[in-house]
Amino acid sequence: MLHSENLERSPTLRIAVFAGMADLVGGRLVEVPWSGGTVADARRLVAERHPPAAPLLARSAFAVGSCYVADDALLAAGDDAAIIPPVSGG
Questions:
Q1: Is the residue at 4 inside a domain?
Q2: Per DSSP, which regions of 1-90 are E strands?
Q3: pTM, two decimal places
Q4: Per-residue pLDDT tens for 49-69?
């Protein structure tokens, strides 16, 4: 007999989102299945799951911890990741 507490959960990448991006994805956090990859891979997964966010996602910065990272940066499940859309104003 299987018990739910014995089932291993698949690794995920949790990504905080801000401003208009949160409106487009329906919340302040996006969670995608993750076995490892690059920021570009993460962007692709988020865009696939939230097509209305794709145009803004392409212009947004990506951060891990307190540092901005390039699209070729590697991400691991559990990283403190965030998508930061462009900000306008004066």
A1: no
A2: 12-17, 29-33, 37-38, 61-64, 67-69, 74-75, 81-84
A3: 0.83
A4: 999 999 999 999 999 999 999
